[in-house]
Amino acid sequence: MSRSLTQTGVTHYDVQKKRRAAVVEEARRHRTAIVHAADAVLEENPTRRMRRGVYLGADGGRPTRVLDAAVHEVPENTTSTIHRHSWDAIMFVTEGTGWTEIDGQRIEWRPWDTIHLPCWSWHRHGNDTGRPARFLTWSVEPMYETFGVAVLEDAGDDPVAELPPPPSSTPPRGPASDSYSRRQRRLAAERPSSGAHRLHTRWEDVNPRVTKRGARSMFLVDESIGYRTSGLTAVMHELAPARWQAKHRHGGEAYLYVVSGHGHTEMDGVEHPWSAGDLVVVDHWCWHQHFNDDTEASSRLIRVHNVDALYDLMRVLLDPLELLQELPDLQDAPDLTGFVWPDPDAGRPQV
Predict the structure, then answer these.
(1) Range name among 7-11, 181-185, 239-243, 267-271 with the lowest pLDDT average
(2) The three-state (H, E, C) secondary structure of the chain, written as one string
(3) What angle do CA 219, 310, 258 make, to 5 degrees?
């Protein structure tokens, strides 16, 4: 039997050092601070029966490693095909009304509602009105693709009852208590159905609270309000007129979609203006601060990141390095003494 010998002119150290440097260099080439609304051009997919525009992601020419962001439009009187994917996503409604069916469960939505699309859940979107409806999505597809486990299936118009269930671990065949059997039992019990956790946050149900950083914030998707995601969290920050949020920095990137208003974000001393429909991309470990440049109305931004999964692992791996830093006692937070916040519905599109 012949033998195959692996031969290389360089050591493993040189190979890995070059490969790791190339990964970082590629990421740096694609970094951006702001993606404007006009950059996410809607493209029609006649098979899917929807329109989609990419803020960040390989399909839009701006590849990322962890998160992507896209805008979707459901035309009037249209139902999309049904599909599922191995990653999960968050959707936020910006215009119009419609519905999303998740594993047969229909959820009606309106502007500023938020929905979680669990991994492997069959879902489709519908619009029964005479005008288009739009929503944003953020997902961890790039991270899953990096790991080699990104899968997308489209089942057309097949009834959900006839579609296969999500993949699941098989339980042990008997009562054995060895370590392999314990792993089988643990993993078999770990994957809940899409109906086992919260899927929908109606805007009417949000609970605004003023934070020490100087913004009024409300959780949209988070474990603390009943969601179970791959680590995705979403919170809306509202900046008071001519006010700002305290400066801070953290490991891992964060995406902030500007729902309303106009202002700028300062990142490592550089100002980046933004307005409604733009996406602010906060790179990892840069000092940043968000400012509302409107002197009369508040500005609202939705922040999405993956802190509760990937970055929590990073905290353990990099301990004792702290992955969130703020100025002592948040000394640069704005003074909101006596400020009266507007009604939470202020600026919400009417339907």
Answers:
(1) 7-11
(2) CCCCCCCCCCCHHHHHHHHHHHHHHHHHHCCCCEECHHHCCCEEECCCCEEEEEEEEHHHCECCCCCEEEEEEECCCEECCCEEECCCEEEEEEECCEEEEECCEEEEECCCCEEEECCCCCEEEEECCCCCEEEEEEECHHHHHHHCCCCEEECCCCCHHHCCCCCCCCCCCCCCCCHHHHHHHHHHHHCCCCCCCCCEECHHHCCCEECCCCCEEEEEECHHHCCCCCCCEEEEEEECCCCECCCEEECCCEEEEEEECEEEEEECCEEEEEECCCEEEECCCCCEEEEECCCCCCEEEEEEECHHHHHHHHHHHHCCCCCEEECHHHCCCCCCCCCCCCCCCCCCCCC
(3) 40
Residue 73: which of 25, 22, 133, 23 has the closest Cα?
133
Q: Mean pLDDT over all residues of the chain?
A: 93
**Cα dihedral 103, 105, 109, 112 sign:** negative
Among 281, 236, 220, 312, CA closest to 57: 281
Spatial separation of the C-alpha atoms in residues 288 and 217, rounded to whole Å: 18
The encoded tokens of residue 210 equal 């003023």
In whole angstroms, give the CA distance from residue 196 to residue 118: 11
Window from 84-93, 249-258, 302-311 with minimum mean pLDDT: 302-311
Q: What are phi and psi of 246, to 5 degrees?
A: -60, 150
pTM, 2 dp: 0.93
CB of 163 closer than 8 Å to CB of 155: yes
Instruction: Provide φ and ψ at 73, rounded to 5°.
Output: -125, 130
Cα–Cα nearest to 293, from 314, 266, 257, 323: 266
> 17 or 191: whose pLDDT is higher?
17
How many other CB atoms are there within 10 angstroms of residue 223's CB atom? 14
Give the closest residue to 257 by CA, choosing from 290, 303, 201, 202: 303
